[in-house]
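Exercise 3.2. Students should predict the tertiary structure of the chain below and write it as C-alpha cells, then compare their answer with the key that follows.

Predict this chain's 3D structure.
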Amino acid sequence: MELRYKIYSLLIFIIFGFPCVLEDFRTMKINPWNAYFGTLVTGLAAAFFCFESFIPALISCAGIFTIFFITHKICGNEKLGFGDVKFSLFCGMACGNILWALAGLGVACVFTAMTFFVAKIKGNPFKRLPFVPFLFSGTLAAIICRILI
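Answer key:
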C-alpha cells in the first residue's frame, strides 16, 4: 500500500509541479494554485492510501515551509520569492518525510550553486535565477530515491 502512495505522490508531483517549472522559467513567478492543489491532492492520497504516512508528510510540509519562510524573511523578496516558499509546501508534502525533503532541498542547492559557478566561469553571471526548477529537480530526485530504497 505504501508503494502505491509513493508512486501516486511522484505522479502528482510531476503533474502539478512541471507547469510551475515552466512558468518560473518564463516569468520568474509561479501560479500558487498549482502548488496548493498539488499539496492537497498529495495529502489526500497519503490519507487515503497510506494513513501512517500522512502525519510525517504534514510534518515535512510544515518543516520545509518554515525553513523557506524564514529564509524569505531574512533575505528579502529579491533573493527568494514568495512563490518559492509556496512551492516548498508542495515539495515537503510530496517527499513525505522531513529527511527526504531536506535531501531534496540539499540537491536543489547543489544544482543551483553549480549553475552559478558554471555561469561565472563562462563570464555570464545571472542577476536572477528561478529556483523552482532546481527545487523541482531536487525533490524529484528525493522522491525517486525514496521509491527505490
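Discussion points: The chain has six helices and no strands. The longest helix spans residues 2-27.
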